[in-house]
Specification:
glutathione-disulfide reductase (NADPH) activity, 51 strands, 27 helices, globular, FAD/NAD(P)-binding domain, Enolase-like, domain 1, 5 domains, alpha/beta
């Protein structure tokens, strides 16, 4: 379809775009890149309330962007509310300054308008500020805003005029009501607001207005969000109702009148009882009853374009019934009304017309997000659509509730955080739809949308190792089906126990082979003995119990959960969340929240530690989860390959025997062998329970994840911190990404001493710690630093001597147990998982997955080995870093520099736009093999919610992700995750 320049020279313009919103602008920019001469026409007809706006279309001015800003303002209000639960001393008398918030948002929009104009000018596009209407299929009359008229001609015409809100045909609707076109620039606070409509615009506006402190009522003529999954829509509605939004369903407004005190009297019909006329008094009435394109403005009848229900009919190539006229965006019949869809379609049209491409937009698996107070995002079919397409017995619905860790200390209700995955019930177990309600839903679903375009199956989803601790990981754990009858509102182990009590046969998952558990071997007291009740050991024990075998678990902790719960990631993630909330309290002022002296907020360390301790002890309780496991509260050590001596914490000793023994003791921090290290230094095991705040100067010694995360926590909570590393920081990670992390932390105040090695610690007369150290580049010069605290984070080591490992003599590698692909040691009946296993990623989710799979291999005949490829990881530094797959360095070593291609770019998180927060460190890259298929080898991102974002992309890589599929997937607007689908810039 591409045309040569000579073929186009007879026309004034190669392309005329009527409308310069997201779709029109995307098409124009791409066409100019491909050498076309482009004219753009844009004019905003004022609303009945007189609202006008600049260039850029609905999304920029009165749609996605201002909506997301107000949603962010609402979230920041929640952050102020939550901050005291995380130890922050924040004044309680805070409120939103509507005028300031609107001013900041409008300033941001105007700067975007200006950037659009500059970009058009620099790319030599001709811009007409006027309304374009057809004279014939190549000729457009332009009625300029200044009243003049002119005609222009073009080879191709693109219609991208979007649509505008509909007003009801009732008395007072135009005079006294407003729409979303007016709301985001409203000069005065809306006060008591009536949102009329049942769609996403009404629900999103009602949600953020309520969270900003206004009294809100939603009026709908029928069901709320009727085109969405109804179970999910009900949960969204119930959550909003629990937050104070009132719902009037089956009502229809009759009239709006202005009262004597300048309020609005709304009269409405009760559709369930026509004899009742109801009324209510409001300050603002917001019409959100639908949208319609202003087609009459463009005189479409002059060219006889096919129209259906006031929308333009197009083919698969966005071509109308008139061959040279195309249409994209909300004006098009049957297309999702989403900004990323319009952008994809616009770019696609330009490439077909001027670039010689013949592909069309993939409209399958387009993710959608509702930015309600508790976000709802989904991709694929709803449950209702699945039941219409397939027989009830041909689909399965996996579902479950989950507890976001950010809700635990603040005690926000978790009863509304819900996930469901709809699958085909056949051998493929192909996933048809994923639905997610909870924090950061939009960020989470983007990667899963990409995965679904790769053909994601249930087996791949469940075998994808989770990113811990994230809400996104819960998608990989929805094991319970609706047809099983298990209660999805309780933790998985409660569901398992409930089911075990109901039936003797232990088949829980549809796709698990029915098993016959062998008779208990009477030669041994237990079928499985787990030395270590951490997450890996516990996962193996629970799965073994589920499969009907007799299990013992030995652990000295009061509760089973190990390092993860007691001194590891649970504490760390709570503290990381505290840091984020402290920062968000400061950001809130930029969004109009009146918080007194936000930068002078203080941290109550004891309160934070106490609340985390209470929460983790609740998780670590053993009574219910150990109901089917014999738990020994003590230390286990080998007597022989089948016998373990248990020294109970109450001094009692006993002997247990097992057919299989699992070693899952984890590791403990290492202290350097220098004077004063034990007397004056602490490790992460003590840091998370320090009785007093780490005031003064703290030295974190180490270059790994633990050191960087603790340093990030300290600086985030307002303390002084220095990091000392003997070589490079995070040297096993992508060094380009690490450099950004270090620069970001340094910009916040962290001091880095690289290539330094501590020699000794002594207590100075001032009761502070004098640390002497050598710099590798100044070997003869001893340097000194004075600190108030030293934290060792130089590595971890397994306590092998404690378990008397020499008795069984398995093969070891640097104090780690060597295992084969099935986690089996060189002693056939003894297995090892988790941090103690040599060559395995030291991650909690890896231990859990390995433990679960081991139990299945031992007791149900499964032969599947754990897949350690493409294990995603997140580092919870102040600016998070998450990745999956190879680093750039690893890819170059494996495939040569010319054998890979790296797409990369910086991006600007929308949540930073009003805060003046630096975006210089927000960066992402995708590494792919340089062959005809371009398989993705690795993905990396630094920025907000990086861990949440990466989980879905991990599933995508495990599903065979290629660059083509990544860039073919429509983005979730406006999220940071969507930038991965637009990362077209290559490294040279």
């Amino acid at each position: 379809m591409a045309k040569s320049r000579s073929d186009l020279q007879s026309w004034e313009y190669d392309l005329i775009c009527i409308g310069v919103g997201s779709g029109g602008l995307a098409c124009a920019k791409e066409a100019v890149k491909l050498g076309a001469k482009v004219a753009c026409l844009d004019f905003v007809r004022p609303t009945p309330a007189g609202t006008r706006w600049g260039i850029g279309g609905t999304c920029v001015n009165v749609g996605c962007i201002p909506k997301k800003h107000m949603h962010q303002a609402a979230l920041l209000g929640n952050a102020i509310e939550d901050a005291p639960h995380f130890g922050w001393n924040v004044p309680k008398d805070y409120a939103i300054n509507w005028k300031k918030m609107v001013t900041e948002i409008q300033n941001n929009i105007r700067s975007t308008n200006w950037l659009v104009k500059v970009e058009m000018r620099t790319q030599n596009m001709t811009y007409f500020n006027g309304i374009g209407s057809f004279i014939d299929q190549n000729t457009i009359r332009v009625r300029m805003a200044n009243g003049t008229e002119q005609q222009i001609r073009g080879k191709y015409i693109l219609i991208a005029i979007g649509n505008r809100p509909v007003y009801p045909k009732i008395p007072g609707a135009l005079e006294y009501g407003i729409t979303s076109d007016d709301l985001f620039s409203l000069s005065k606070p809306p006060g008591k607001t009536l949102c009329v409509g049942a769609g996403y615009v009404s629900m999103e506006c009602a949600g953020f207005l309520n969270e900003l402190g206004f009294n809100v009522t939603v009026m709908a003529r029928a069901e709320i969000l009727s085109t969405f999954d109804q179970e999910m829509a009900t949960i969204v509605k119930e959550y909003m109702a629990s937050r104070g939004v009132k719902f009037l369903q089956y009502r229809l407004p009759k009239s709006v009148e202005l009262t004597a005190n300048k309020q609005l009297l709304v009269k409405f019909r009760n559709l369930k009882n026509e004899n009742i006329e109801e009324q209510g008094i409001f300050d603002t009435v917001l019409w959100a009853m639908g949208r319609r394109a202003l087609l009459d403005d463009i005189n479409f009848s002059a060219v006889n374009i096919t129209i259906d229900d006031h929308e333009i009919v197009v083919n698969d190539f966005e071509q109308t019934s008139v061959p040279n006229i195309f249409a994209v965006g909300d004006v098009v019949k049957g297309r999702p009304k989403l900004t990323p869809v319009a952008i994809k379609a616009g770019v696609s049209v330009a490439r077909r017309l001027f670039g010689g491409e013949d592909s069309c937009v993939n409209y399958n698996n387009i993710p959608t997000t509702l930015f309600t107070p508790l976000e709802y995002s989904f991709v694929g079919v709803t449950e209702e659509e699945a039941l219409r397409q397939f027989d009830e017995n041909d689909i399965d619905v996996h579902h479950g509730y989950y507890n976001p860790i950010e809700f635990i200390l603040s005690k926000r209700p978790t009863a509304y955080c819900y996930i469901k995955v709809i699958t085909k019930r056949d051998e493929s177990c192909r996933i048809l739809g994923i639905h997610f309600i909870g924090p950061n839903a939009g960020e989470i679903l983007q990667g899963f949308a990409v995965a679904m375009n790769c053909g994601l199956t249930l087996d791949t989803l469940f075998s994808t190792v989770s990113v811990n601790i994230t809400n996104a990981e819960e998608v990989t754990k929805v094991f319970i089906t609706k047809r099983s009858g298990l209660d999805p509102s309780k933790p998985l182990y409660f569901r398992i126990y409930s089911y075990l009590n109901k039936c003797k046969k232990k088949k829980i998952f549809k796709n698990m082979k029915k098993i016959q558990v062998g008779k208990h071997d009477n030669n041994y007291e237990y079928d499985l003995v787990c030395i270590g009740g951490g997450c890996g050991g516990l996962a193996c024990a629970l799965k073994a119990v589920e499969l009907g075998v007799k299990v013992a678990c030995i652990d000295p902790q009061r509760g089973a959960a190990g390092i993860y719960t007691n001194v590891g990631i649970t504490y760390k993630k709570h503290m990381h969340q505290a840091c984020l909330l402290g920062r968000e309290v400061c950001h809130a002022a930029c969004y109009g929240w009146n918080v007194r002296n936000p930068r002078k907020r203080s941290m109550n360390w004891q309160k934070l530690i106490s609340k985390i301790k209470i929460a983790t002890e609740r998780v670590a309780k053993t009574d219910d989860r150990m109901k089917y496991i014999q738990f020994f509260n003590g230390f286990g050590s080998f007597v022989d390959a089948h016998s373990v001596k248990v020294k109970m914490t109450n001094k009692e000793e006993l002997l247990v025997t097992g057919k299989y023994i699992l070693v899952a003791t984890g590791t403990r921090p290492v202290y350097p062998k220098i004077p004063g290290s034990l007397e004056y230094g602490i490790t992460s095991d003590e840091f998370f329970s320090l009785p007093s705040p780490p005031t003064g100067k703290t030295l974190c010694v180490g270059g790994g994840v633990v050191c960087m995360e603790i340093a990030g926590i300290l600086i985030g909570l307002g303390f002084n911190v220095t990091v000392m590393a003997r070589s490079k920081v995070l040297q096993a990670f992508g060094q380009e990404m690490v450099k950004l992390l270090m620069e970001n932390m340094a910009s916040r105040g962290v001091v880095f001493l690289q290539h330094c090695l501590p020699k000794s610690i002594a207590l100075a007369r001032c009761k502070r710690l004098l640390v002497s150290y050598n710099h590798s580049q100044k070997k003869d010069d001893e340097e000194f630093g004075v600190f108030d605290r030293v934290i060792w984070a130089i590595g971890r080591r397994a306590p092998l001597d404690d378990i008397n490992i020499s008795v069984i003599n398995p093969a070891l590698n640097d104090s780690e147990i060597i295992v084969n692909e099935y986690e089996q040691t060189t002693v056939p009946n003894i297995y090892a998982i988790g941090d103690i296993a040599s060559g395995r990623p030291k991650l909690f989710p890896v231990a859990v997955a390995a433990g679960t799979l081991l139990a299945q291999r031992l007791f149900s005949g499964v032969r599947q080995a754990m897949n350690y490829e493409n294990v995603a990881q997140a580092i919870y530094t102040p600016l998070e870093y998450s990745f999956v797959g190879l680093t750039e360095e690893e890819a170059e070593k494996r495939f040569d520099k010319n054998g890979i291609v790296v797409h990369h770019g910086y991006y600007e998180p929308l949540e930073y736009a009003l805060t003046h927060h630096s975006t210089n460190f927000c960066y992402m890259k995708v590494i792919a093999k340089c062959d005809e298929h371009r398989p993705v080898l690795g993905m990396h991102i630094t920025g907000p919610n990086a861990g949440e974002i990466m989980q879905g992309f991990s599933a995508a890589i495990n599903s065979g992700l290629t660059l083509h599929t990544l860039f073919d997937t429509v983005g979730v607007c406006f999220t940071n995750a969507q930038n991965f689908t637009q990362l077209l810039n290559k490294k040279k």
